[in-house]
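1st attempt posting a full record on here, be nice pls
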Amino acid sequence: MKSSSKKSAAQWLLSGFTAFTLTFSLAGCSQTAEENPELEKTTDASLVETAEYVPASADGPAQNVPEPQLPISATEKSEAGAEATLKYFWEAIDYGRLTGDTTYAGLVSSESCDLCSDLISGWTRVYEEDSWAVLHGNMALEVQDLDISTEADRGETIAGISFVMTEPAVDFYEIDGHLEDDSFDTESTADWWAELNFDETSERWKIEWIGVEDHLSED
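the predicted structure (as tokens):
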């Protein structure tokens, strides 16, 4: 029997935003762990025994999911840095979708970003309630426009990014079986908008606001 709490967690994630997944491979320059342990590290692959990745299925959630790596370019106060941060955010959300661990997404999320907080807590909640997601395909993200400006009165560097996301169909499962009412059987495409602020203290971009562009007129 379905639990109402499990159902609400899955339904919230599909209500208005469907499910999120990303398979971007983000490139960046190498940096030592001592300089910044959160940034991507270069390791001799021959010295590391990597467990085989197991995709999510009706039998259970994904296993041995590669952890997202924050690219060095995210520290650049540039268009490239802002775009890399946006893509990393969705990669980190995708990791949370597959594992329930959304701490990586928090690295580039401002406390003022409501949707960031909702996604971070929402995916964590799904797995805490012994549910998991199976996506049929990969999300495609295409940046349409990116503009950087400086607010003279506050001395802040702001990036506005318009992008299109196509999200795949998704099925939710729990130990008792398929949550048919919570699943989404078709892919969807929408125009999105994100605003990022360059944090001078942490030397990285952080997302201040993100959402479907239709919601801009409502704010």
